[in-house]
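Researcher: Here's a chain I'd like modeled. Treat it as a single chain, no partners, no ligands.
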Amino acid sequence: MNDKRPVNLDLTTIKFPVSALASITHRIAGIALFVALPILLWMLDRSLASPESFAELKDLLASPLAKLVVWGILAALIYHLAAGIKHLIMDMGIGETLEGGRRGAFTVIAVSVVLILLAGVWVW
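Model: Modeled as a single isolated chain. Structure tokens:
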């Protein structure tokens, strides 16, 4: 049997196009938001339970680890939102070509990097 399928299926050696990387990252950001949801709900509960629990949460969020976690959650939210807006624009028929998809992926990444850095300045 003369099989011409690829033998090497190591994903680290395959060069993905930027649109594929943007799509994969969008999915990862969605999963990260799903995982972060209990943390966010717990923080909301602590902030609304009593003035004392709000003060405790405020003190907890002053630690560098908590700031890093909040920044990570914000980063996932920002990227997922930017990529979702790109998908909504594509649903209207704008940027559906190969070049449009590539340009849209670069735009999402650039806008997300800027907004994530601004969110980091805001959190820290």
